[in-house]
Design a protein that fits this description.
The complex is a heterodimer of chains A (about 325) and B (about 350). Chain A is of the alpha+beta class and about 325 residues long. Chain A has 9 helices and 17 strands. In chain A, helix 2 packs parallel to helix 4 and helix 3 crosses helix 4. Chain A is globular and about 75 Å long. Chain B is built from 12 helices and 4 strands, in the order ααααααββββαααααα. In chain B, helix 2 packs across helix 12. The chains are: A alpha+beta (about 325), B mainly alpha (about 350). Chains A and B meet through strand 6 and helix 4 of A and helix 8, helix 9 and helix 12 of B.
Chain lengths: ~325, ~350
């Protein structure tokens, strides 16, 4: 099912959380709403779910080209996974998952045996079959997350909405779960939207990404598009570390596009710099340099092999050049 | 302290154990001094007076104790005049005492459900919604604790009495005594029910007593719920709604099970206070015998130098207090477990 929002505005008191936002998410897409806190991404997700209402007379929400503004959250058939899971902590895992099915009006409620069967299948799917009778407080963060997901999927929603789904997990679990969610999405093919402030997560997981800032969508596109062709300095900065080179115009360069003592940028400008710090980063090294002709520091990432062959060390004077510098219109230095 | 149930013994034990670095070295003397002082105070102020209640109540034996509440009906025709007068007095006194107990229970049976609903509504309002004037609202909930009960009673007289603030409108209200309901059948009117007893006005009737008691005991339920519901937030309710549950189902299946112990705790406190309330009820009851609740009855018996009877009625209230205390201990523990479990869950991930 496709999701579309048109001209949505939402204000909390004097704060404008969303400012005339429009967005169309295609059927079967896994879409990321990416942005810093306060950018309005969670508000947008909650408006899609029906947990918040847009400002009176401002815009509309459509599922499959049908306006759903008048539908209460309990009628919209969305699966919503909350940031802190919001599991019913007085119910077992199995009871949590069965809740949505049991809450249906009698005519649509599946028979008891079928509910039990569906719960068992969902538990199988989220790999928690052996924990069916545990209470949520006895589960780890990652397990709770999967229960929340199973509970949301139990009611066979038409769209799946996830609010910071991996925000409360530690890094390792987060990576595992990310892969698992991607696979799950491919298996069941449900239109999904997730909110995150982690650009790595958004770029790795999503089919398309909306990058939000101050209540507006700055750019929408596939991960490659937004990373390769950022529409604004904000998007560029938000999607990863970036160096600012001051000149007549500001130019932005990613750390891995900084070339040290190399020949690649030889044709263009080069800058003298001194190595301030070398940090270990697995297959690469992160090098902090101070420009000698300008009071600024530059971050560079080079492969470890290259560091060894060039013999880079702290305090060394080097020359820098850049490839692929980005310049934006109307972005002059003041 | 360790919890008896298996529900959350670890959480409780952790919370009550003082970490080693916070314990005072060589504080054994101080400990015994404080324990001793507390025991002394409790003995002098609570245990001895409580024991005295029962001693006085049974001072004339078990028979006299029972006679305070129940005197068997006898044929007075053969009695001498003096004997008959004594018997009639005892008989009517016992009936008044029984009526007082009945009225107290009736009032509580009305007031406690009322405050259960209103307390729950108030707690719901201040914890699940954010609105202008919310802080003022929270302090208003506590107002009955701050106001002297006598003043509270007087306020009701000023509003609903004969020389009321808005005139004597309330004295013209007629209302039926619910216990006097009768079946008339459909022959005379569409309404088959009728009442044999009607009351006029609000003040100096049981209705006034209900109002005064409800006012005084209002904060208990709300106060017991607010901290718990505050810590729970609205996430689980919202989750239930997204899963298609109706508002009512969400309340009964998600909210209520998680606040039930705190709710029961508030109800118990509300009930105990309702039984024992003297000041506010005394003002609105008008000192007529049919309007006596148990505390007012005790006061009257005491004024009549009927010490043994006064203490006998008091012994009932004392039993209620002890039961309340025991229930309170059990429920408080459950409620605390519910609260700490919630906090733990929020802190963990």
């Amino acid at each position: 099912m496709s999701i579309e929002v048109k001209n949505i505005t939402k204000t909390f008191g004097t704060f404008k959380a969303l400012d005339n936002v429009s967005l169309k998410i295609e059927t079967g897409e896994l879409h990321a709403l990416l942005g810093p806190s306060g950018s309005g991404k969670t508000t947008l997700l909650r408006i899609i779910a029906g947990l918040e209402l847009a400002d009176q007379g401002q815009g509309e929400v459509l599922f499959n080209d049908q306006i759903v503004d008048g539908q209460h959250v309990s009628q919209r058939k969305v699966g919503f996974v909350f940031q802190h899971y919001a599991l019913f902590r007085h119910m077992t895992v199995a009871e949590n998952i069965a809740f949505g099915l049991k809450a249906r009006p009698r005519a649509q409620r599946p028979p008891r045996a079928e509910i039990k069967d569906r719960v068992a299948r969902l538990l199988e799917m989220v790999q928690l079959a052996n924990l069916a009778h545990r209470m949520p407080s006895q589960l780890s963060g990652g397990q709770r997350q999967r229960v929340a997901l199973a509970r949301a999927l139990a009611v066979e929603p038409k769209v799946l909405l996830l609010d910071e789904p991996f925000g409360a997990l530690d890094a390792k679990v987060r990576r595992e779960l990310r892969k698992w969610v991607r696979k799950l999405h491919e298996d069941i093919g449900i239109t999904s939207v997730f909110v995150t402030h982690d650009q790595e997560e958004a770029l790795e997981l999503a089919d398309r990404v909306s990058i939000m800032n101050q209540g507006q969508i700055e750019q929408l596109g596939s991960p490659e598009q937004v990373y390769e062709n950022p529409a604004s300095p904000f998007v560029l900065k938000f999607l990863g570390n970036v160096n600012l080179f001051h000149g007549r115009q500001k130019s932005y360069v990613r750390p891995h596009d900084v070339v040290i003592n190399g020949i690649e940028g030889a044709g263009g400008e080069s800058f003298p710099a001194e190595i301030e710090h070398i940090g270990f980063g697995g297959p690469v090294v992160n090098i902090t340099l101070r420009r000698l002709d300008h009071d600024s520091t530059i971050e560079a990432i080079v492969p470890r092999e290259q560091q060894k062959t060039l013999g880079l060390h702290r305090g060394q004077k080097v020359s820098l050049s850049v490839r692929d510098p980005r310049v934006f219109e109307n972005d002059y230095e003041i | 302290m360790s919890a008896p149930g298996a529900a959350a013994p670890t959480a409780l034990a952790d919370a009550n154990e003082i970490p080693a670095h916070l314990r005072h070295p060589g504080s054994a003397v101080a400990k015994w001094v404080f324990v001793g002082l507390t025991v002394l105070f409790l003995t002098a102020m609570i245990i001895l007076p409580a024991a005295n209640i029962f001693r006085q109540a049974f001072a004339k034996g078990v028979g006299a104790y029972v006679q305070t509440f129940y005197v068997a009906e006898k044929d007075t025709a053969q009695m001498e005049r003096k004997e008959r007068r004594k018997y009639n007095l005892e008989f009517s006194q016992a009936r008044k005492t029984r009526d007082a107990i009945g009225l107290t229970v009736t009032v509580a049976a009305v007031v406690v459900p009322l405050n259960l609903v209103f307390g729950l509504a108030a707690a719901w309002a201040v914890t699940k919604f954010r609105f202008r004037g919310r802080t003022l609202f929270v302090s208003l909930i506590d107002l009955p604790f701050a106001v002297s009960p006598v003043v509270a009673g007087l306020v009701f007289i000023l509003i609903l009495g004969r020389v009321g603030f808005f005139g004597d409108w309330a004295t013209n209200i007629y209302w039926p005594a619910p216990t006097s309901i009768q079946w008339h059948g459909f022959a005379e009117s569409w309404n088959p029910f009728g009442f044999s007893t009607w009351h006029q006005g609000v003040i100096f009737t049981p209705l006034g007593i209900v109002l005064a008691s409800a006012f005084v005991t209002f904060p208990f339920v709300a106060r017991a719920l607010i901290p718990l519901m505050d810590s729970q937030g609205t996430d689980q309710e919202q989750a239930a709604l997204t899963l298609g549950a109706s508002g009512l189902r969400t309340f009964f299946k998600v909210t209520l099970p998680q606040i039930k112990w705190a709710l029961l705790y508030g109800v118990i406190l509300c009930l105990a206070r309702c039984f024992g309330e003297f000041g506010a009820v005394s003002v609105v009851s008008g000192s007529t015998d049919p309007n006596d609740t148990m505390p007012l009855r005790i006061e009257k018996l005491w004024q009549e130098y009927n010490t043994q009877a006064a203490f006998s009625v008091a012994s009932l209230l004392a039993v209620v207090s002890v039961l309340t205390l025991l229930l309170k201990i059990v429920i408080e523990k459950r409620a605390a477990a519910q609260l700490s479990e919630k906090k733990k869950e929020v802190a963990e991930p």
